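Example complex used in Figure S2.
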Amino acid sequence: MKLISSALLVLCLAASAQAQQEIKVGGIFDLTGITSDVGKPYAQGVRDAVAWTNESGGINGKKIRLVDVDYGYKIPEAVAAYKRMTGDEKVIMINGWGTGDTEGLKAQVNQEKIPYVSASFSAHLTDPSKTPYNFFVGPSYSDGLRAWLRWVKEDWKDKSRNAKVAFFYGDNAYGKSPIEAGRRFCKDTGVDLVDEEIVPGAFQDATSQLLNMKQKGADYAYINVTTTGVSTILRDAKKLGLPTKFGSNPYGFGEALPQVAKEAAEGVTGVMVDVPFGEDVPGMKRLVDFHQKNHPSDTHDTFYVRGWTYVLVWSEALKRADKAGKLSGEGVKTALETLKDFDLGGLTAPVTYTSSDHRPTTTVNIYQIKNGKLTKAKQYEMERKPEWLGL
Amino acid sequence: MSSPLLDISRVALRFGGVTAVSDVSFSVARGALNAIIGPNGAGKTSLLNCISGVYRPQQGRIVFDGRDITHLGPAHRTRLGIARTFQNIALFRGMTVLDNLLIGRHVHQKTGILAGGVYWGRGQKEEIRERERVEEIIDFLEIQPWRKQVVHTLAYGLQKRVELGRALALDPRLLLLDEPMAGMNAEEKEDMARYILDINEERGTTVIMIEHDMGVVMDLSHRVVVLNFGQKIADGAPEEVQSNSEVQAAYLGGQAA
Amino acid sequence: MLSGEFHTSYAGDMGIFETRRARWVLAAFIIAVFAIPFVAGSYWLDVANRAAIAVIAATGLNILTGFTGQISLGNAAFLAVGAYTTAFLANHGAPFVIACPVAGIVAALAGMVFGIPSLRLKGLYLAMATLAAHFIIEFTSSHWEAVTGGVAGTSIPSPRILGYDFSDDRRLFFLIVPACIAHLYFAKNLFRTRVGKAFVAIRDQDISAEVMGVDVFRYKLLSFAVSSFYVGVAGSLLAYQARIISPENFPLGVAIDHLGMIIIGGLGSVLGSILGAVFLTLLPEVLRLAASALSGSFPHLVQLFTPLKVAVFGLTIVLFLIFEPDGLADLWRRVRNWFRLYPFSY
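Predicted assembly (994 residues):
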C-alpha cells in the first residue's frame, strides 16, 4: 500500500506542475445507478458544456478540468468521491447529482467551503443560513409540485367537490424531498391529498400501488421518480384502464417519456425546468452547433440541456471570481451570489442567487404531452414566500 | 470403597421404532477396567453414548458416584469426571495435537474471554500451567514429535493416541473408550494396551472399553458385559463370559435359545 | 541465513511469534504503516482508513465463521448497528471513548440475539437465519427515522479525545489504526487461550466439543457476541470516518465482501483477515486507477468500472477457492517457510 501511495504522490507532484493554468471542478454523476436514465444525458451535457467553454476562451483564459466520477447513485460512493476530489484533486467546486448525497454532504461542503452545485432541486438546499454552499439551477422540486397542484386546481372543473390527488414517490431523499411541501400546499389550495404510494428504487411493476390509488379514488397523481419509473407507472395505469391524470417531476419528464411509454404518455403533464433539446430559443444555438460539430448522430434531450445550463451558470461565477482575484471556494460562492437575473438564453428561467436566498427562480413551466410531443401548457410564477425557503 | 462408581439400571434407548438398548443394568466398581462386547449392532456404542450423555435414554437411571446423571448434558457430565473417545476418531481436525489436548483442560480452566484476549497476569499464568499439565500427557503417550502438527495430517494410529490423550487431559475418573484399537496393527495395539493398563493401574482411572479384539478383552479386563440385540446377555469375569453358551451362540451368529 | 529457533520455556514457546526475527519484522511493518500518513495524500489515507476498518470487521467475521464455523451473512447489519449507535450517541453529545465501545456492545447484544438460531441451525440454514437478521436491521435502519435519519441517512460529528479534533483522515488514521492493532492483538491472544480454542473445537467437531465439556451453545453465542463486537466497533469507526451514513452504506453486498475477504485471506486465520481485507479494499482502487489511466484511449471504461469491479471480485473469489483454498495467509506461510531456512529449504 505504501508503495502505491508513494508512487501516486510522485504522479500528483508531476501533475500539479503542469496544472497551474487549470481550474479543477469535480463532477459526481450517475451513469450506472437507478437514476442513470436521466443521469447519463445530464453528464454528457456537463462534459460538452465544459469542452465548449474551454474552446470559447475558458475562464478568462484558464481551462476548466472536469474531474468526474460515476457514483452509481450510492451515497457512500459519493462521499468517497467527494473526499478524493477535495483532498487530492483540490477541486475548487463540485457539480453534483443526487438529493441524498447532496443533502448528506451539505455539512461537509459548508465546513470545507466547497461550492456544491447539484442537479438536485431539493428545496432543503435553498436556505443559505443552513446550506450556504449549496446551489442548483431551476425551480425547486417543491415549487414544481406546488405549481403542478395549482394546475390541477385550475384543471378541475367539478365544483361540487375538491380534486383528489395522489403522490407516487421513491423511497429515497429525492423522492421524498417535495412531499411535505406538497402536503401543506394541498391544504392551502383546496386540493384533497387522498393517497401516498411509495415505490422502490428500481421497479418493474407498479400495479399494486396503482390499485391502492384506484381504491382511494384519486383524480390526479404526481409521480416523483425518474423517467423509467414514470413510464412504468403510466403503462401499468393504461393496462388497468385508470382515468387518473398523471403529472411528473422535472426528472421524470422529457423527450424519452412519449417514446418509451407511447400512448400511455398522452396527456400527461410535467414540470419542465429546461426546454427540450433543439427548441427555438436564443441560447440553443451553441448547443446545436456543438452537437453538429462533435457528434451529429447522437440524440439529446432536456436533461442534456440541463447539464449545459449548470456549466453556463457556474462558469460565469468562476469568471467573476477569477476577475475579483478570488478563485477559491469562498470566492466562487460569493460570485454565485452576485448572479442577478442571469440570462440563459431561454434554456431555462433566469437565475438569481442572494446571500439570503438560494432559490434561483420560482418560475415553473408545466408541459403536456400532446400527440407524442412536449408542449408548453402553462407558466406559473410561484410566490417567493419566506416560509417556503428551505421547504 | 463399596459403592460402585457407575451404576446403570434398566436403561432403554429407542430411535423411533428401533430399540437400540433395552433394559440393561450393570455397575462398574471404582478402579475397574471393564469391557463391553457384543456383535455389530448390539447397542454397545449406544450404551456408551447414554453414559457420556450424547443420547438420553427413554427409560432407566444412570448414577455416577452416587449422583443421578440421567438428565445431565454431556458437558455437565464431563465436568463431573466422565471422559470418552469415539469409535470414528472425533478429534478437532484443524487444530494441533497440543491444542486438542488443551481443549481437554477446558473444564479445569477459568480464564474468561477478556483475560484471554488481553493475555496478561492470571490468564497467562493459567495457560502456562495447563500447558505443563498437557506436556505430562504428551510424555506419557510418547507423542512429543508431533505436538505442533495439525491432527488431520497424522497417521491413523497416532490420531487414536491423541484422542486418548485428549480424554486423559480431562483428568477423568471414568474413561469410556469406544474401540480404542480398531484398525491398528499388532504393534500399535500392544502400545495402546499398555497405555490403557497404565492409565488404569498407575493413575487409578476407572475404564470402560468397547473392543472387538477378544484377545485384548480377555487379557485386560476385570469384568465383561455382553450385549446382543440391545439386551445384556452376560456379565462377569472374562473366563465366565467366554464359557457362556449364549455368548458363544451370539458370536457365532445363531439365535440365543 | 536463518537457523531454526529453540524455545527453552513453555511461556516462550507459547508466544505469538515463532521467532525473534518475526517480532522485528512486525515492528518494522508497524513503523511502515505509521509512515503512511506522512507520505500519502488524503485519498489514499481514506483508502488506508477504510482498509483498517475492513480489517477489524473481517477479523470479527473470521472469529465467527472462520474460527467457530458459524456462517453469517449478517455482517453488514452488525456494521449498521455499530454505526447507527455511534451516530445516535455522538449526536447526543457522547464522546468517542464512550460511543465507540458502546457501539461494539450494542452490536454484540444484537449479534447474540440473532445468534440464537445457531442452537439448532448449521451451515446454509444458519446463513439464511442471519440473512433474516440482515433484512430486519436494514428495514429498521431505513424506517426508524428518529434514530437513523431514514433513507437520507444521518451525519456524525468528528471524534474528539481530550479536546483534540480528529477531523480529517490523516488524524483519524491515528485513531483507527491503533484500534485495529488492539483488536488484532486481542484476537491473536484469544486463539491461544481457552475460549478461542473452544471456538475452534466447536467448528471442527461440535459433538466432540460438547463431550469435552465445552458448553457449545454458550460458546456459539459468545462467538457471535465477540464477532459482532468487532464488527460494531468497525461500524462505529466507519461512521466517524464517513461522517455520513445511510442504509446504502450497509447493503448485503458488504456482508458478501466481508465473506470474500476471509475466504481470500484465509478462514480461521487472523493474518488472513488482514490480508483479505486489505486486498479487497485495494482491488477496486487499483481497478479505478487502471480505468482512469486507460480512459484516454477507452473513454467508455469509466462507465464499465462499476460492473467490472463486481466481476473481478467474483472472479477473484472463484480463483482463490480453486487454487488457494486456504487463502493468502497460507500462501504467505509457504513463502515465509521457504525463505526461513533458505537455501536449505528441504
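Chain B has a mean pLDDT of 86. The domain at 1-81+172-257 of chain B is CATH 3.40.50.300 (Rossmann fold).
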